[in-house]
Amino acid sequence: SSTVQTNNNRNYGTRVDGPWIFGIAQPTAEGYEARFFHVQRRDAATLLPIIWKNVYRGTTIWSDEWKAYCRLQTTYGYDHQTVNHSQNFIDPHTGCHTQLIESLWGAKTKILRTMRGTTLLDSHLAEFWYRSVHKSMFPSILNDIRHYRTK
C-alpha cells in the first residue's frame, strides 16, 4: 500500500503534493513486522524492486488490485492474491485482505503528522520499522548498543 502524507483532513479524495510512502507488513508470532519506504512514484518500476529486495521469493503477497503489482506472480514468482475493495474488504474465496497494512497506516500517519516536515522522514520510517521488530524497546536498544562494534 502507499499513501501521501497530509495534515488536512479536508483534502480527502484530493491529490496532495508530498512524499509517497510505500509499506510492506508481515504478521509474526509477536504481532507484525512493518517496513515503510519513501518513494517518488507509485509505479511498477519503483515498487517492484523494493518488493524484490525485501520479500523472499515464493512468499504469498496480499494486496489490493493496484496496477503496479500485477506482475508479482508472473514475472517475480510470488504467490500474489488480491482483494477488490470495491466488492469486499476480505476476499470470500481466498481470505485475502489488506487489514494489517491498513491498520498500520493509522499508527504511522499519527506519528508522522507530529513530526512537521519531511527532512527526517527516512529516519522516522526506520524507527517505525525498528519498533515493529523490537516490542520491548529499552532492552532491545541496550542489547544493540552492547553488540555495536566500530571499525
Automatic annotation (TrEMBL):
InterPro entries: IS1016-like_transposase, Tnp_ISXO2-like. Residues 3-133 form the ISXO2-like transposase domain. This is ISXO2-like transposase domain-containing protein.
